[in-house]
Amino acid sequence: MKKNVQNALLYRREGMAGKFVAEKVRNIPPSGIRKFFDLVLEMDGVISLGVGEPDFITPWHIREACIYSLEKGFTSYTSNLGLLELRELISKCFRKDYCVEYNPKNEVLITTGVSEAADLAFRAIINPGDEVIVPEPSYVSYKPSVSLAGGEPVPLATTLENEFRVTADDIEKSITDKTKALVLSYPNNPTGAVMGKNNLEEIADVVNEYDLAVISDEVYCKLTYNGNHTCFSSISGMRERTIVLNGFSKSHAMTGLRIGYAAGSEEIIGAMTKVHQYAMLCAPITAQMGAIEAMKNGDGEMKKMVREYDRRRRLIVDGLNRLGLDCFEPKGAFYAFPSVKSTGMTSEEFAGRLLKEQKVAAVPGDVFGDCGAGHLRCSYATSREELVEALGRIEAFLDTL
Amino acid sequence: MKEILEILENNPKIKPEEISTMTGMTQAAVASKIKEMEKKGIIRKYKTVIDWEKAGEEYVYAIIEVKVALRDRKGYDSIAERVAKFPEVRSVRLISGDHDLSLTVRGTSMKEVAFFVAEKIAPLEQVQGTVTHFVLRTYKEDGEILFEKERSERLAVSP
Ligand SMILES: Cc1ncc(COP(=O)(O)O)c(C=O)c1O
After folding, report:
1. Residue (of B31, B19, B151) closest to A312 by Cα position
2. Could you report the average pLDDT of every consecutive run of 10 residues in chain B (159 residues)?
3. Which is deepest, A202, A231, A310, B91, by most CB within 10 Å?
4. CB distance B21–A40 less than 8 Å?
5. Is residue B45 part of a domain?
6. Closest CA to B130 of B90, B99, B92, B88
7. Domains within chain A, CATH numbers bracketed
């Protein structure tokens, strides 16, 4: 009775349907990105460095493959796991790039983007109360997904001094007897940090010692500018513990097609497939057809895009440093993560004023975790002309301070 | 070197400073590399792709396929080089298939182009025959799309 009265008071302002919303969902904090997005929407003439997706449109040969598949009438469901041909191509790619074997029949699952794959991974392994360590700053969806799956996300701060890499020591300090899993997300959104093989090996030791599972989101693996990416499951002993998440959104500019995959041991992929078959049934067949084309013939266009990102990366990092916004060298993804601490402003103040006064949108770093405070995420997935213009506007803004 | 060329191919107006930042080479190195490539003829010229139709100029373009009878051991080079000297001829290519040379010719009217072919190309001794295709519209030139460009309809901010 008392609870009902409380609820009535709580929900009165939101209309009567609010009472139906589950507590778990209610407790998820509103997205900082969303808030900023609403601000930007109200303005004209904004140059946005706030976009987390490629500015390239999906390469034409991939779009053509999608169109062709529609013309041929491929509009049905596929197997829950996804088209076998695509799983075979992915499995081959793991072997070729990282010398890791995944059986395409039961160790690769095609999903509706890495987003779904991450959600499935958490739901497949988390028991109520299990803790999942999430190194930050990080992509915004891990923590809520862990919570929705009934787990406890445990944020773990990384630092500029260590170029935003997570260390074995840090992880060890966050471990409790409830720790079930660790999220790894390198190359990293929003910092552009990467982890070398030696860094990963240190982490593997801790993972082994404390018997953890690892969810490794490697969606930016093709976007590295300083040596090749190392897949976490290729580290000795890690294959059975690791769920590798990957996709086509970033490497092949296929964000809106919604296609990704997970690879792992048969038991875990089986568990994820159980959830996936009821929640999603299968990934969209048109996107799967596009992904097959991307795997078969997409390397050329992909490398061209990566070369272009690299040029922009140098342009923006050099520009920001010259303006006195200290920016360590991001070695992957398409984000620069400069510090605005020298201005004495918080990220949010800086981003808000920069937007209002000079119409440049960049996302405040603390959106990606408390330790991102004092930084901005500047995406360089935008044309060189716009980057140069944005740098000019940032300079004009700094001059007024 | 290829990196510099790739950048220049798409934008000859770009400043050496910018190339230097984008490639990580020093400005001096970029400048001297470009000079060297100009001297060697790797960089032939800096040109502008113009939509003449939009500029209101009535240029007529035609693709001329030329069948060549080889007379002596000089091969195709001698006829190709001869044809190339006409300023009306914008490009000359040796091609496989039914014909041997493919020319692009520019004039100010169809008549002018037709007469140019009839009077200057067809009568050449090695030329056995020509086929003239008038260009009605150009959709893409030198890698540049001339119709409305696609724009990415991205949201202004996304995670
Ligand atoms: C680290 C990271 N993981 C996953 C995603 C989402 O990928 P997908 O489009 O495959 O769902 C993003 C998108 O911004 C990302 O930055």
Report:
1. B19
2. 92 91 93 96 93 91 95 85 96 96 97 97 94 95 88 86
3. A231
4. no
5. no
6. B99
7. 24-57+301-396 (3.90.1150.10), 60-298 (3.40.640.10)
